[in-house]
């Protein structure tokens, strides 16, 4: 049975990604060649032809001092390329978790050989820090420094802010996988 894109719930999309991760023998990374991933297109912003869209997000639990990150890469048609998620057993705060999500997205892009992309995050501090060449005076400063070292060699990469509601898609869901 082939489902229409609108028939897939967020839970089904997340479960599909988790199954793909587990089938590849890794619970933290997922790589795949471009394949039909019928649920992904919902909510995907327009991406210029030839560029990939990388969406990153993070979660933070202040009570436990832990967090999680998620990154997903899609092609210009919204098709699934790759995803990664990571559990952060020790993280100071939300800004640090968001910086780790940026790093996760950049590492995934580097891993698949991608340097022509639009990176989206719902954390304006991440966008501003990268646009200010990685300078930061917060606890995540060393993470930003590492990210900017990678970023400056990605000549055709751009970073932009997307509103939290727009970022409630798969990157958010993938970040939540780490806590399950």
TrEMBL record:
Transmembrane segments: none
All residue ranges annotated as the RNase H type-1 domain in the record: 55-168
Molecular function GO terms recorded: nucleic acid binding; RNA-DNA hybrid ribonuclease activity
InterPro entries (UniProt xref): RNase_H-like_dom_plant (IPR044730), RNase_H-like_EbsB-rel (IPR052929), RNaseH-like_sf (IPR012337), RNaseH_domain (IPR002156), RNaseH_sf (IPR036397)
Pfam families for this protein: RVT_3
Protein name: RNase H type-1 domain-containing protein
Organism: Eleusine coracana subsp. coracana
């Amino acid at each position: 049975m082939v489902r229409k894109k609108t028939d897939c719930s967020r839970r089904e999309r997340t479960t599909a990604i988790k199954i793909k991760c587990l089938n590849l023998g890794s619970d933290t990374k997922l790589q795949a060649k471009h394949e039909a991933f019928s649920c992904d297109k919902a909510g995907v912003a327009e991406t210029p032809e030839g560029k990939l869209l990388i969406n990153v997000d993070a979660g933070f639990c202040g009570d436990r001092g832990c967090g999680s990150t998620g990154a997903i890469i899609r092609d210009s048609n919204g098709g699934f390329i790759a995803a990664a998620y990571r559990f952060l057993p020790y993280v100071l705060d939300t800004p640090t978790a968001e910086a780790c999500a940026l790093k996760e997205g950049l590492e995934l892009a580097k891993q698949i050989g991608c340097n022509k992309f639009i990176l989206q995050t719902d954390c304006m501090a991440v966008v501003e820090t990268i646009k200010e060449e990685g300078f930061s005076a917060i606890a995540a400063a060393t993470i930003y420094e590492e990210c900017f070292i990678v970023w400056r060699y990605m000549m055709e990469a751009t970073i932009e802010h997307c509103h939290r509601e727009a970022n409630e898609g798969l990157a958010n869901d993938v970040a939540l996988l780490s806590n399950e």
